[in-house]
Amino acid sequence: MDVRLRLSLVVRMAVATVIVASLSFWVALFTGVLGSALLLGVVGWIPSKVATFALEAPRLSAVLGIHPGIVAVAALAALWLVYVGWQRVAPRARDDYLFPPSDLPQWLLVLVCLGALYSLLVEAAAAITLAVLAVLSPFSLGILVLAIGFLLGIYGFVSGVKKTIRRLQERSISEAVPADEVDDRLPEVVARLARQGSVPAPAVQVTPRDRPEAFTIGSGSSAILVVSEGLLDVLPDDELEAVLAHEVSHLANGDSRVMATAIAPIVYAEGLYIDEHPDDPGDVVFNLFVRMALRYGEFGVAFLSRGREWAADAGAAELTGNPAALASALARLDDEHGVPQEDPREWSEAYAALDIVPTLDPDGRAFPFRTHPSTQDRIERLQRLATELESKGSAATNS
User: Fold this and answer.
1) Contact 288, 46 (CB under 8 A)
2) Is 247 part of the annotated catalytic residue set?
3) Is 97 in the same domain as 206?
4) Which of the residues 123, 247, 298, 309 is marked catalytic?
């Protein structure tokens, strides 16, 4: 990989990190604020109701003038004694079970249990309420509820991002079968390329989709390289090897993990869209804000992805020593992609799985938001690499 390409990747990574990190921050902040509002507005009324119930309900501690915590402990002890002592009372009762009561000993124990349960509930609630009010003012309590809600919102955001990544990966291989069931040469070729690239050999799977596709998910020993039957049908052996080398280069560069992490906040943010009510301008403004945030994130992901595609092309040329084969494969695949033969929704999902960046491309997108360089630019660069290799080969022969 030449110095200019390395420098380009560093710059792209820095820019994309700033964009995606800032988008993640704002989405996480929004989720946290939303969580705080929900906890305070929807669930926050529960403590006040509990406090009102606990302090106003008839309580033995209020009659005796003692701390409710003492009565709560006594009620718990009474329940424990009934549980432990039932075996001694049972021989004097008509039945072996405590509920329902059938004679006087059981009636008395049932009354003790019900009274102890009531006391435990009310006195414990009163004790907790008094303890909280002794430490926190109502204002501090509200701040605490907001903080807890904010943390829960952030946790929901992080969990949602992880689930998004898993869902994208699972959908990508939902119909795939092991490659050796289709063509036993594929795992051997991929294993050889992986050894050349100094990465663990990924599992190879084939999807039944007609659209030519090749993509990788996961990383390290858990990585999976997926190709479609459509790809196997349209590419000759040398071009297929070049495409597989391109995907192995993605694995060597850690692109699958990087791009999945970069795209997940955007996919998660798409879930913030709301159904616009025609009489509510706030819905329009909110969705406009979400749309602007998504476009901002899409630009960062596309800017990063294009550089990593350049690097994967260069890596494939190095692994195979045949840049012309990848250039020919790209030209062939570009023609095949130009005439989709599947349902548009299925085609869109297939494209999303191919790049692991849902809804960000397809070819009609403006250049700043496209995840791949133009096919023609990639072919021209590969052709230049092929010319350079031929020149080096000729010079070595002449020397």
Assistant:
1) no
2) yes
3) no
4) 247
